Amino acid sequence: MNKTYHQITYTLDSKFIRNSNNPHTVEIKDNRVLSHIESLNINNYFLRKEQLYSCFPNNVEGKLLGRKRCIDLMQVSPFILTCQFVISEKVKSVLTDLGVNKNEYVLKPIKIHGFVDTFYLFFVPLISDTKFIYPKTEWVRLFEDNIEPVIFQDKDSYYADLEQYMIRKLTLPSKYKGYDLLYPQTSGLFLSDRIIEEFDRRGIVGYDVINSGCFYASIVVE
User: Are 122 and 87 in contact (CB under 8 A)?
Assistant: First the structure.
């Protein structure tokens, strides 16, 4: 049975934030982390991605910016390649209890100053755009809604076009059937419907599902 996927982002719900420019964010100032992430970028990620995770520093600490309480999913600053959120033990339990394949994510503990609980840097490995099924993938021009989608026959023709595009509908090969976490290159993070349903059931907060707008996209796995 094919899964349905939902693209998510950090929450803009006014119950948790007063200003959409100021979401819950955990800041890391550890020089070991900064040095580590500076050595990796999108150009060398697929050659060295195991190093990103296996050599990531231990005993990392962070600070919650401008907030009095933590929530289940929070942004991290500075940007760390493929690190989607800082997550709580409750989110970790969802992944464990549902038996999400350990190949789909990596967790690295982080202590947040002033809080007893352990949180985790939540990494989801990137799916290279070489894996996309281009003739069945639809793109739209950046910041232009409700226009006819553009289709490219292959990666080369996509990169040869000088326009800027966003994925509207991505098709992935059957290799990804059964995945619960999908993070395609040039797009955002997608969670399976069973994870979203369990988040709802357990009252997980800190994320919004993207249902429309410029950054909305859907995924089909053949």
Answer: yes
Predicted local confidence at residue 20, as pLDDT: 52
SS3 letters for the chain? CCCCEEEEEECCCCCCCCCCCCCCEEECCCHHHHHHHHCCCCCCHHHHHHHHHHCCCCCEEEEECCCCCCCCEEEEECCCCCEEEEECHHHHHHHHHCCCCHHHCEEEEEEECCCCCEEEEEECCCECHHHCCHHHCEEEECCCCCCCCECCCCHHHHHHCCCCEEEEEEEECHHHCCCCEECECCCCEEEEHHHHHHHHHHCCCCEEECCCCCCCCEEEEC
Burial (0-12, 13-18, 19+ Cβ within 10 Å), 160: exposed
Distance CA 119, CA 61 (A): 10
Closest CA to 37 of 108, 96, 91, 112: 108
Q: CA geometry: angle at 153 spanning 148 and 158, to 5°?
A: 75
CA dist., res. 119 & res. 222, Å (int) = 35
pTM listed for this prediction: 0.93
Size of the chain in residues: 222
Angle at 149 between CA 144 and CA 153, to 5 degrees: 130
Average pLDDT, the chain: 91
Kindly report, residue by residue over 62-83, the tens digit of the pLDDT: 999 988 899 999 999 999 999 9
What is the residue type of 56? F
